[in-house]
Design goal:
By secondary structure, the chain is of the alpha/beta class. It has seven helices and 14 strands. It folds into two domains: about 90 residues, Methane Monooxygenase Hydroxylase, Chain G, domain 1; about 170 residues, Pectate Lyase C-like (3 Solenoid), CATH 2.160.20.70. One of its GO terms (molecular function) is tubulin binding.
Length: about 325
């Protein structure tokens, strides 16, 4: 029995995390398909069921804290597979069209579905807006070619030395863009100011950035030196991250769009530190390092953006 207990103490965490990481990687790979294969989704669900059973079998031999952490990871995988299952369902065919180029050459290049095509989509078919491959810019809602319309999902990638402010200066519901999910990857030295997200925000590979967002689910992977100003009703999750600081969503942004419920921005789960001791990868931002003045007004020119960033990113 002693040998068995020792295996669950020392070996089970390694085996479980290896299986979980492999499964998450396969889910991420399946999501790259335009329409995931339902057979693959079923296989992933079966693998998750096996992993869940192994945890259930081990629960009475694991510390309570570890049981809770592993259970949270199982739930996160379940949500990812359910999202994949929805994406694998047959979709009504429609055509994406490239938006006409903006006359101002300084405007960022943004691609979105034309407004007249939106009416052909059912309410559960996501519309994607892409904001990518920009540097030394201040980007606001007016830089989206269909500003004033509502989107389902937003993708932001490949930004360097940018300030992105997608909050609205008005409280009129008709003028507020609402996103159900935001996917962010490959950002460096960038400030991202977002309103309340109706669903989740997923972040990958961020370096020396500042993020302000309200959401229901927050997941960050493979990132370092990031300040996160967050309003969230569930536990934020980080993995393979370092030097992450968390603070409450700024009051000045709450005035533009109030947040719902009590925030759990300091109840962070670090999937790379499944131990009872505090994670070395994140901490609460100290009062003297919290940003007080946010760049809510548009900044013109590379030099102006650089100057603003130097005051915001430590």
């Amino acid at each position: 029995m002693a040998d068995s207990d020792q295996w669950y103490t020392h070996e089970f965490p390694r085996v479980f995390q290896a299986s979980r990481s492999g499964l998450e990687g396969r889910i991420a790979s399946a999501k790259t398909a335009a329409q995931p294969n339902p057979n693959i989704v079923n296989e992933l669900a079966q693998e998750l069921a096996k992993l869940n059973k192994s945890l259930a079998d081990a629960n009475n031999k694991l510390p309570t804290y570890d049981q809770r952490q592993y259970g949270l990871q199982i739930k996160a995988l379940e949500a990812m597979i359910e999202e994949l299952r929805e994406a694998s369902k047959p979709k009504t065919k429609f055509a994406f069209r490239r938006a006409a180029p903006l006359e101002n050459s300084q405007r960022p290049s943004v691609v979105a579905t034309p407004v007249k095509d939106i009416a052909t989509l059912s309410s559960n078919k996501p519309q994607h807006t892409l904001l990518s491959s920009l540097s030394h810019r201040y980007i606001s809602l007016t830089d989206l070619p269909t500003s004033g319309q509502q989107f389902s999902e937003l993708a932001i990638s490949g930004l360097d030395h940018c300030i992105v402010n997608l909050t609205s200066s008005t409280r009129q519901n008709d003028d507020i863009i609402r996103f159900s999910a935001v996917h962010v990857e490959n950002l460096t030295h960038t400030v991202l100011i977002l309103p309340m997200i109706n669903g989740s925000i997923l972040l990958h590979n961020l370096t020396s950035c500042v993020i302000a967002v309200g959401c229901h689910q927050f997941r960050m992977h493979d990132s370092r030196q990031v300040q996160v100003y967050l309003s969230i009703t569930s536990h934020p999750v980080i993995e393979h991250c370092s030097e992450i600081g968390f603070a409450a969503y700024p009051d000045i942004l709450k005035q533009l769009q109030p947040m719902n419920g009590d925030s759990k921005h300091l109840a962070v789960h670090d999937f790379s530190h499944i131990r009872s001791s505090p994670s070395p990868h994140w901490s609460a931002l100290s009062n003297d390092s919290v940003i007080e003045s946010w760049p809510m007004e548009e900044i013109h020119g590379k030099e102006g953006v650089e100057e603003a960033l130097s005051a915001l990113i430590l």
